[in-house]
Amino acid sequence: MPVSDPNAIQTPDQTAPPHPAAALICAADDIFDQAAFDAMLEAHAGDAPSDVRSAVVAHLKAARAAGRETIAAAFRAAPFQARPTTHAYAHLTDCLVRSALRVAQTVLHPNPTPTEGERLAVIAVGGYGRGEMAPFSDVDLLFLTPYKITPWAETVIEATLYLLWDLKLKVGHSSRTIRDCLRLGAEDFTIRTAMLEHRFLHGDAALAAELDTRLRADLFRGTERDFIEAKLSERDARHVKQGQRYVVEPNVKEGKGGLRDLQSLFWIGKYIHKVQDAADLVPLGLFTEEEFDSFVAAEDFLWATRCHLHLLSNRPTEQLTFDMQVAVAEAMGYEDGQGRRAVERFMQEYFLHATEVGDLTRIFLTKLEAVHLKAEPLLERLFKRKPRVRDGYEVIHNRLAIADDTAFLGDKLNLLRIFEEALRTGMLIHPDAMRLIKSNLDLIDDDLRTTPEAQRIFLDLLLKHGNPERALRRMNELGVLSAFIPEFEHIVAMMQFNMYHSYTVDEHIIQCIAQLAMIEKEELVEDLPVASSILKDGVNRKVLYVALLLHDIGKGRPEDHSILGAQMVRKIAPRLGLKQDEVDTVEWLVRYHLLMSDMAQKRDIADPRTVRDFAKAVQTVKRLDLLCVLTVCDIRGVGPTTWNNWKAVLIRALYRQTRRALEDGMEALTREGRGTEGKRALRAALEDWPRKDVQAEIARHYDPYWQGLHITAHEVFARLLRDIGENEIVMDLHPDEDRDATRACFVMPDHPGIFARLTGALALVGANVVDARSYTTKDGFVTDAFWIQDADGNPYDPSRLPRLRKMIARTLAGEVVTREAIKDRDKVKKREKAFKVPTHITFDNDGSDIYTIIEVDTRDRPGLLHDLTRTLAAANVYIANAVIATYGEQVVDTFYVKDMFGLKYYSESKQRSLEKRLRAAIAEGAERAAD
Q1: Which of 258, 302, 391, 590 would you call most buried, defined as having the most Cβ atoms within 10 angstroms of its Cβ?
Q2: Which residues does residue 337 pair with via DSSP β-bridges, in sequence order?
Q3: 225-370 falls under which CATH superfamily?
Q4: What residues of the chain score a pLDDT lower than 50?
Q5: Contact by Cβ (8 Å): 541, 463
């Protein structure tokens, strides 16, 4: 091979776009002024190499900064123009790399007569090789030599890299021969994939062309199946690590339905069919024109999102954290409207595109199976048995396929029947069948929706096969669910912008139904004994499933979604074939689907009035059973860690007490009866005590004490009180496994503000309070019980309790000034600052016979409870107990209080004064947390 002309590598075409026909978002000369660079070099032609180097670095730094700002400004003006933007960043990088190599070869280390072995080609690989770069993408370079690298080539490469590093480029590089490339590519599919997308940048073009030929002939050919399996294995591992595409903070690059999934499809297509562009997959039959349009739309949207992420964070951020979601939505021009925030609209579009990517993946892989490029799973090959399918269907690659498209579409009901057949046979639906269904959704019209057979099929999908979530999820992804229930379309891929919900609204509903199906199959008897027994004893399953399906149908609008959803049920439920009494029950369940959860988590269920009011609202045991199961499924469907023993104990206790009231009468809820039971239990627990000591212990407490605490707490307080000194503070910390919390009991002489001091001490040690009760004895002691959890929402490990006890004791002894010490801990994490939670404060004098209930609904933060209790104490408010319900970034702190004379707060002026003080405390703490 002849030695290359040295002049060919000194004057490359610096203005060529990074990819054939690649459009740039702004003019190439505005991105990088090649003439200015040439003039700078010319001006320093006679200078020492070190001076030239300094001038080059200074010029290229300024050029890079100016070029990046030009691209960013053009992108901000056209925030969806992702493809020209990624090409522009790649073009700028090309210019910088070529310039650096040119200076290294011709100025710093000139070699006018290179030998055959000193030929050098610089090749872009990976995403950079594809000509697509986000603002902070890595620069992946391959320095290619024909044989073992020579000293001159090594010097040039080193000088080039140092120049690029001085420009603050993050360069990934390798120096290899063609033989090295083939050997390493055979061993590592990541390296092979990077070289699949290589692009010649500068140097010896013939050497680069030889690499291209050898890769195709000696490495790629004949290894198509291995490559496909490797890429799919990588994808599966990536999905396991990142989670499903419905996670609320998705990874744009690596997550399910993200850019890497789209790139994997293109890599496979390029590896097998040698395509250079995704559009080339259409003539090959791998995509239809419509599917390719979806591919392009998803790719453009995801790239635009990624570029905005990089620019806004000023670093290579790939995860759409909550704070970045708000910023990206604003940068892309989304606006608030119709009861929904801009960020929710943006994220709904994101999830719709992610779903589309999943559909495209299924279609693409099925086409590969058709030509036997993707291997069937081993077990399927060993035990291949075609299941029997009904007329009109056939089995292709162990998937349910349509035998005759025309005949299938001849009966509109087949658009529902195929999902029934899939559940009956246990098979996945063939993507070609999905493609046919998706393109004929217009056949699902009002006539079909009200057909008795369509109603029967749909309800059977819910009730008959034991895994309704599978059919619902596929129907939802294909648009069948929202075509059959048009009101459902509004909530498809709808994100709820909060830290409480882990899924989109539609996925949350499907998760709830999956929970119900598992309870019915007795898979959760140990975790959910009450719900399991209710279903085992028998309820109207149709009502329960339809209520779960529709319970959040009203979300995403300005109105209360429970009220609006109940109104929508009146139209939807009859269309599904429900009788009028069933419609009425579903409507009630949707209207009050949050009632049991709110009562259990926001009210004191030890107060008979709470149970009495709840029983009056529910009215019948039948409704109570249905609402209990729906509530359990709703909470468990929020996210994988939302349900815990604490919620289970609350729901279970409220259910059992309410059922008792409904069956035996409200008189079963009297305080006197509960007090008698509590005293009797304590006598039994203290049977080793002298009788007079037991009587003295029972006599020292007022009636509310006996109804508000379990016997285990009564026993602890009895032992603490028995030996307490006059001014002593004693405590007992003990794991309460039944409630997923640590119970902290305190006894000390009573004085104003003690409850606030305790909340401050607990906040200072990082404890989250989930429940608290305070009782004063007749002889002047206060007995306070707190249930606390660590930062992860778990009980404290027993090994941590001694240190916890010591820190609390120091605080209570006055060695630490709580308000000052808590400032450093009372911070809101950066990713959580995007949440705006309005503050609502209500006063309720009807929910308790004895106390005024103050409910504070606001933004959660570490020191909030202490600020609120300190404020109430300063206003001479007596706090009997506090119930804390946390929903992600939102918290509802409920206080049962009296004034200093033991009376309720009936006066509106006193209520307004207290509310003003509480709001001021919240605002002051919010400012502190934001610093």
Answers
A1: 590
A2: 340
A3: Nucleotidyltransferases  domain 2 (1.20.120.330)
A4: 1-17, 20-21, 245, 378-379, 381-382
A5: yes
